[in-house]
């Protein structure tokens, strides 16, 4: 009888934990497969709702920011407005990351750098000098906090690939960074809800 009660209690804990985590897991899985503006917009709304329901976790806000950042790259005519939304969301996510957690903070600063980069690519001639150095500063911080973060490596390669050689661009260095990023992307994520986006984009660049 004792064993039955123990097993029932363990099963209850498992089911409860699974039920609590599955909405975020499902949305993260959808994000990994998303490609279109409509898909990213729907997911941005989903993550924002999850953030409103769970005010203590940084991940829903982080993912909402990622979705709006992706939209900023895809919809350059709306990039400045979308990047402003993403910037506000990632700032709120940053405030929820436990102190001293450098790996999670590296994820935050990688997204902050991507947001600034989306502003650059919306209008390189007008925005490059203003937002490019900020993107570089955030990326350097992310790389320092976690040198093996695949999204930071991918962004570094993305910048080197799209920057003219006259201004420091280098496609060979970009390829090396993409290859290094893929080695880390191919490792299993820390959990089903841990940041894992970017692999498809990196593979495409290679």
How is the secondary structure organized here?
Layout: H1 2-33, H2 37-53, H3 59-74, H4 79-94, H5 102-122, H6 124-145, H7 150-162, H8 171-185, H9 199-205
Tag the structure with descriptive keywords.
mainly alpha; globular; 0% strand; Serine Threonine Protein Phosphatase 5, Tetratricopeptide repeat
Structure description:
With 206 residues, this protein is mainly α. It has one domain (22-205): Alpha Horseshoe (Serine Threonine Protein Phosphatase 5, Tetratricopeptide repeat). The protein has helices spanning 2-33, 37-53, 59-74, 79-94, 102-122, 124-145, 150-162, 171-185, 199-205. Helix 1 (2-33) runs antiparallel to helix 2 and helix 4 (79-94) runs antiparallel to helix 5 (102-122). The longest helix is centred in the N-terminal third of the chain and has 32 residues, at 2-33. The N and C termini lie far apart (59 Å).
Number of helical runs? 9
The chain-level mean pLDDT equals: 90
Helices and strands, in N-to-C order?
HHHHHHHHH
CATH C-level category: Mainly Alpha
Biggest beta sheet summary: none
For CATH, the homologous superfamily is named as Tetratricopeptide repeat domain
CATH fold-level assignment: Serine Threonine Protein Phosphatase 5, Tetratricopeptide repeat
| Low-pLDDT residue spans | 1-20
In short:
The chain has 206 residues and is an all-alpha fold.
């Amino acid at each position: 009888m004792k064993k039955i009660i123990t097993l029932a209690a363990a099963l209850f804990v498992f089911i409860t934990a699974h039920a609590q985590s599955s909405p975020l897991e499902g949305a993260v899985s959808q994000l990994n497969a998303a490609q279109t503006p409509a898909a990213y917009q729907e997911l941005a709304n989903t993550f924002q709702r999850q953030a409103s329901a769970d005010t203590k976790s940084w991940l829903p806000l982080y993912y909402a920011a990622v979705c709006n950042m992706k939209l900023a790259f895809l919809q350059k005519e709306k990039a400045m407005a979308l990047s402003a939304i993403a910037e506000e969301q990632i700032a709120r996510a940053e405030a929820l990351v436990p102190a001293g957690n450098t790996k999670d903070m590296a994820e935050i600063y990688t997204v902050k750098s991507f947001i600034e980069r989306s502003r650059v690519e919306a209008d390189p001639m007008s925005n490059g000098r203003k937002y490019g150095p900020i993107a570089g500063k955030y990326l350097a911080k992310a790389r320092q906090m976690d040198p093996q973060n695949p999204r930071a490596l991918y962004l570094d390669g993305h910048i080197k690939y799209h920057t003219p050689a006259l201004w420091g661009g280098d496609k060979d260095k970009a390829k090396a960074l993409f290859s290094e990023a893929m080695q880390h992307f191919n490792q299993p994520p820390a959990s089903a809800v841990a940041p894992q986006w970017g692999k498809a984009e990196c593979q495409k660049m290679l």
